[in-house]
Amino acid sequence: MTIEPEEYVALNQPDNESPSTVSYIQDNYENLKNKIINIGLVICAFMLLLVNITDLISGLVMINNCTEDTYTPAYFIVAGLIGAVAKSGHIVIQQNKRLPKIYQIFYPFYVFEFFWLIAGAYYYVITYPEREGCSKSTYSLAYWLIITTCISLTILIVIFCWALTMIFSLVYFKNKIVQFLAKSMRF
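Now predict its structure.
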C-alpha cells in the first residue's frame, strides 16, 4: 500500500495542528465503517445466494424423481430463481458504484421468498411423513433443504444482530476511539 503525498502530510501534522489529524482520522473512520458494512452485506447475500442456487439445482434434479407430485420440484425451482434474482441483483447494485442504490426493487422478492419459505416449511417439514408422489429420498432432500435454509437464516440474523451491536458501540465510542488514535499517531 502506497501513501499518497496528501495522506503523508495529513499523518505527519505537527502537534499544534492536531484537529486536522483528528478530522483525517474521523473521515477514515467513517469510510472504514461503511466498507465493513458493505462487505458484511455482500457476504450475507452471497451465502444466501448459494442456498438459492442449491434450491434451484435440487428442484431441477427432483423433476426426474417426481412422477405424481409436480409441486415439489416447482417449489424449489421457484424458490431458487426468486432468491437468486434478488440476491444477485442486490450484490450487483452493491458492488457497482455507477448504478443508483435502488434496493427497493428487491423488497417484493424478499417478501415473496419469506412467505414461500413459510409455505414450504409447513408443506415439507410439518407434514413430512404424510407425503406421497415422489421418492422418499426426494422428500428427505426437500425436508433438509428447508431446514438448512432456516438454519442459514438464523445464523445470518445472529451475525447481523452482532454486527449491528458492534456498529452501534463504534458509533457510541467514536470520539474516544478517534482521540485515542490521534494521540497514538503523534510522532
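Confidence is low (pLDDT under 50) at residues 7-19.
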